[in-house]
């Protein structure tokens, strides 16, 4: 039998260096990204900023026709063998109709509840770039002095809210004169805050906090000039919130894909704001057994505070990549995020832990350095029983009475 049949995952060795993360760079980059509106479908501006950061790190990159950014981190291999994928798009709104009252009916871009949009300040983008307006998402009954207790009993949903434009409009004709039309994007203002205790409160931390952590990890590698065992691709997608993030742009020879996204902090979840989380399963199914455990092993070896978690109502860039047919191991790393797609909050410690784990992962070899070099191979070479054993059930389970 081939010797590789009993191959174990490569042991975590001291060859990976736990490099210092520039926290000031991480937080300032995060604040910069948060202040740039980028709902799915309107992401060109934020990608210009992301590209500026990637260029400053000396990485070769390009953009696909639709605008996904692809950068290469050269390693000892000749070809790309792993990818780290993160998204720059966010949830948002779009104008559905202009009401006779001059208010706007809106629909969500991405999956989020109108419950958390009520009271949000927004920016309304028209096709005329010089005509940008502000507004507020309000319940249909927003005045307690007029509606009394009815404001507490009205329903929750997108048909129960409207956008009030901060302009003197009282009719659909007035709104048309502003240049506002059906199909215009409405961005939820992020309003980011960094507290003395290290918490970051803002809309759209999903996934701009993950993106800032990725850039901080790349900066740590760049500043230390450490060699990478495997050439890696850094992919920034623009449609994750609507389900088609990493459907294209990945190199054909990617053997491992790590999606970076939020880790849900809520009752019943294992994730915490000050930790990095390793996803074991989401609504699309389990993540790769070996790669997920490899990441957890790296965290333990380097003293990086990490936890494993399972997510029910969740998917990431890994899902569309696999659905598009990529033949790669896939895993999920996340920063702890409270009230995801709502009134979001993360902690700098969790973002630093995420960046640290990315740094050591990108220095490491592939999960199975030999087997994972190719898309396929013979059964005799497949690492199986010694790394994922499953003893057969007993043939006879009959229990005889005494």
UniProtKB/TrEMBL annotation:
GO biological process: proteolysis
Region (Disordered): 379-402
CDD domains linked to this entry: M42_glucanase_like
Signal sequence interval, chain numbering: none
PANTHER family reported for this sequence: AMINOPEPTIDASE (PTHR32481), AMINOPEPTIDASE YHFE-RELATED (PTHR32481:SF7)
Family label: Belongs to the peptidase M42 family.
Record protein name field: Peptidase M42 family protein
Species per Swiss-Prot/TrEMBL record: Kineococcus radiotolerans (strain ATCC BAA-149 / DSM 14245 / SRS30216)
Lineage: Bacteria, Bacillati, Actinomycetota, Actinomycetes, Kineosporiales
